Amino acid sequence: MEQEKAVQLNFTKRGFVRLVSFLCALILVLGVGFALEGRAAARYRLRLEENYAQSLTGLASNLSGISQTLQKGVYAATPVQISTLSAQLWRDASAAKVALTSLPLGDLHLDNTNRFLTQVGDYAMALSRKSVSGSELSDEEREQFAALCEYGRGLADQVYQMEQEIIARGITMEQLQREIEELGSQDGAAAPPEGAVGAFQGLEESFSDYPELEYDGPFSDHILKKEPLMLRNVAQISFEEARSRAAEAAGVEPSALQGGSDEASIMPSYTFSGDNVWVYVTKAGGYVSTMMKSRADPPADQLPPTAGETAADGKDSPAQRAILAAQRYLAGRDLAALVPTWYRLADGQCVVNFAPTQGDVLLYPDLVKVTVALDTGEILGFDARGYLSNHYNRTIRSPGLPLAQAREVVGKQLQVESSRLAIIPTAGQYEVYCYEFSALAENGQRVLLYINADTGVEEQILLLTEDETGRFVQ
Hints:
It comes from Ligaoa zhengdingensis. This protein is of the alpha+beta class. The protein is 46% helix and 19% strand.
């Protein structure tokens, strides 16, 4: 008995020693792991701070470049010089935007600063295009450019001072981010912050008198304010009437659609949704602006031929049958006069663009898009926003440039096969009256060229591809 107790005691001692050894080893391993993880985290934070520092230095450098280029631009007189400076402004502004978005400043909502960086390069490129086309820059445009120059100089000086303060005080971006978060949690009565955060806020507030820029570019202020032409001076419709029109466009019963939050934009609309369908109807005029349907299973088969209907060229293809289905849909929406301009095949669907004509002139700004399922011919999408925004009865005059003279602008390596008159939109949603030339290159590439019908300037070039029916599509 005593011998048995001794064995148990020895066993207990051995077990205890082993347990202690195991715990010590575990603590050592965990300690080493935590130490390595801490070192890795420290290295990560260090790299992150280095990246932030590089972004801040890059922002200051690019803003300095923008300021200097803008000052040179004020005195530029030749199209070549204006074009060179504009390209430099575009590069510096793009780099500055990248640097700014890389900094942890999202909660400060630097909308005006971002707007300046977006517009300055875009505005310069618009002036460059105008200068190269042979047009003189107006006094107003030069005054706006000079105003941009002043803002650019002030912005560069402020960011440089902030950079020096952050470096001198050893402020990390982690600290800066904490200050911004604390600022966001305070009420509006709190005193304006000091230091780097206050400097960034002051940067944003310095744009209080920033001018509105209206020019031929996608970020022009006039685009944000443009009222849809077809919604002017038309009566408002009721919610129930809008739901009835939405149901008709979607091919469902009105009871299948539920109303959603109204869209408050430049095109105020009632919104409706049902089983995998969404429809927007304008409050003014009651136009269906958008209809979208989704399907759980992507289509695999092709749309079968429709009895008694073939395309005008006699070719029977999935795309041609989809175009016919889209045309039937538009006829039901009182848009039968629109003509198909080009289409795109993707994911079992065919997206067809239609445009109206006035006389013999094609109106590209007034596009309507219809999406058709290739397996069933079901209309999956309808987008008339371009049509509602831009369509009106234009005053179309004779071209200032004869067709033969415009034809001479087309490169000799292209064989022109057809031509017609068209109005095309510019990047800034203005319009240009053009000759549209359909041409074939030596390598078989189909090209559409748009030559200004008044000045002979080459406004746009589109490259087309050939589908299985031999039709060229964009």
